[in-house]
Amino acid sequence: MAGFRTARRVLAGGAVLAAAGWALRRVPAELGLRPLGSGPVRVGRMRRSPQFRDGVFFNRMPEPVTLMTAPPVGAIAGLLRNKELRRPPGPVPVLAPPSGEPAPGGLRATWYGHASTLVEIEGRRVLLDPVWSRRPSPSQLVGPKRHHPVPVPIGGLPQVDAVVISHDHYDHLDMATVRALTHTQKAPFLVPLGIGAHLELWGVPAYRIIELDWDEEAEVAGLRFTATAARHFSGRSFTRNDTLWGSWVVAGAARRVFYAGDSGYFQGYRGIGAAHGPFDLTIMPIGAYSPSWPDIHMTPEEAVTATVDLGGRLMLPVHWATFTLAPHPWAEPVDRLWHEAKARDVPFVVPRPGEAVDTADLPAVDTWWEMLGPARTVGG
């Protein structure tokens, strides 16, 4: 009997190791491809970029950007304390996204969670930073897990006209999602300089990749896409800033949308608004901020200020509620946004995941996140 139990434990341990090995086999591909070794055409464009110097991309705006080489002790301690505050107290309500064709002259946005958003503008569909994986990580064995399911399976998405990527961090560029979209969609991928190397490694045909530097533009399906500045950084491993990051302007004949990607606040939003705005919709990150990295993620108050700078008529907050990426409580970003936007009379919406926002027929803003259960307190 003892020998049987020992054999069973050995078999179980072997199965666990085999499963772990199977899961880890994808990690090298998840890290992507170093763009400086991906071919002379791409490398030449990178080296000619005003954002490229001494082998890496950098932030040209005058505001300083201090990047951590390792998380400070205080930040690590914060992540270990009060974990219950950083997850929702109850199930996050997820709605079924609307079906049917978008209105030819309208503007509608459906937030799927984190930064993933479908924008339907003047009859065209644009998918922003799609991430369908359970964890934004090079391995699905480690990293923060979703707080809610994706509202629609990736195979259930409607056909889109463009897929737009802001930068190559795992919570914005997901290999499994890119591979799935390569097979289920026909749309091109619009990405900042260098990211095309990752996509090619993952099987995206070169003819479906459009790489742009800041202030460059491309026309796709009758929409004009302009890559604009962001105050951030890039990297999928310990190597940083070998691809560019950015924000995006999506402009139709009459409607305009700004997507900030990930960014710290900077004065350049005023210039973007003057050159490309005003915007019918600004899609702005409000979460994953911390005093330990103040230069690369906006606070909710800064996101409101950026919307004002951009000339935004309506703000849609993203980059919260789905993954725990910072020590702040789960709903703190949207609570702070609510108070700041109300105080400054900035129109905003807070949809549930899967809920569509039509700029011509705005839903009433309700505090649905407060209805998930009693708010937790420190030590409670």
What does this structure look like?
With 380 residues, the protein is α/β, with parallel strands linked by helices. It is 24% helix and 17% strand. It is built from nine helices and 15 strands. The strands form three sheets. Strands 8-7-6-5-4-3-15 form a seven-stranded mixed beta sheet. Helix 7 (268-276) packs parallel to helix 8. The model is unreliable at 10-22 (pLDDT under 50).
Question: Nutshell version of this structure?
Answer:
The chain has 9 helices and 15 strands.
Give the biggest sheet: 7 strands, mixed
Uncertain runs with pLDDT below 50, 5 residues or more? Answer: 10-22
Question: Helix and strand string, N-terminal first?
Answer: HHHEEHEEEEHEHEEEEEHEHEHE
End-to-end distance: 47 Å
The percent of residues in helical segments reads 10-25%
How many strands?
A: 15
Overall geometry comes to globular
Instruction: Tell me the number of helical segments per DSSP (H or I, 4 or more residues long).
Output: 9
Gyration radius, rounded: 21 Å
* Strands in their spatial order, largest beta sheet: 8-7-6-5-4-3-15
- Multimeric state: single chain
Mean pLDDT: 90
Q: Structural class per helix/strand content?
A: alpha/beta
Tell me the β content: 15-25%
